[in-house]
């Protein structure tokens, strides 16, 4: 019997609401299987600041490092917006990623046929889109030194080393190899030295993956191509800043921020989280869409725990629930038979998963 240790960080706002549903689905999934889950809860974000005056307590870092995987909800909210930067919830998350050395952020953008009309784009443009953005997460301009403010100027520095580019490129190529074998590396090599190095290193690593087709695009063109013809992409590989922007753009192809999961992985740890934030505007109302969090649990099963059959059961259960016309409020206008609460959506998915056992 395998006993997986999962660190749960529910966080702030709708974080606890959606992670409770992901936990419900995981528990349903482990019934009559040869594995079980041991969940340990840790604090991060505003809730950790309120308790410890520290958005990332040491205990949380250690708990995550000891776990097989981390499932995280979201952090942040207006209540903590005026704190000094290092005490804000967002600093806790950046520090956690850095401490866990999760250097690769993987964000799939999958379009569910049942929700094709949820996108603002024409259905023929997005039907069948299945792409993944691989974003470097702990380097680049978000972390580069020097940074600061002096008199009438402020500055940040975009830095990448050959090693940092190589390791993220390998993640991208490996993923492309397991999919449709196409990798598009996105940079700004016509202007930035750091991008010239990025392109050179990615081209060098490509020699180890002759079965994967490598293309390069400048980031301005890539952001246009994502809207014009998203089906051309399989895996998009890019740096921290460009990936932050492009992965949000890619997520909108699918219509709702409440549907998309992500993984942040490294050699020491793996952190799974929905791409959305803590949504303070709907927190406590019981209307948040838990599907992104539940799909994050499915990614965790597939990528880290290697329980692929179980991961696929979750995906199938979600498709079935959507096909049967159940919708949370954010996707209610698209073929709803019944509008359900966060908790009902989680329970329905858990029931469908149990039926698959
Ligand atoms: P947000 O993603 O929280 O919300 C944007 C909009 O999408 C809101 O209208 C919200 O109601 C809606 N939404 C988000 N998730 C939803 C869901 N599951 N179901 C239905 N609707 C959903 O982004 P924001 O409003 O820019 O930020 C709010 C707070 O979250 C801020 O404090 C921000 O710093 C934080 N944030 C945290 C993370 C994270 O924890 N990884 C990511 C982004 C933002």
UniProtKB/TrEMBL annotation:
Annotated residues that bind Mg(2+) are located at 220, 244, 248
Which GO CC terms are listed, alphabetically? cytosol
Tell me which residues bind substrate: 97, 107, 135, 220
Keyword Phosphoprotein present in the record's keywords: the answer is no
Mind listing the UniProt keywords for this protein, alphabetically?
Amino-acid biosynthesis, Branched-chain amino acid biosynthesis, Cytoplasm, Leucine biosynthesis, Magnesium, Manganese, Metal-binding, NAD, Oxidoreductase
Quaternary structure, from the entry = Homodimer.
**Could you identify this protein by its name?**
3-isopropylmalate dehydrogenase
Species of origin: Helicobacter cappadocius
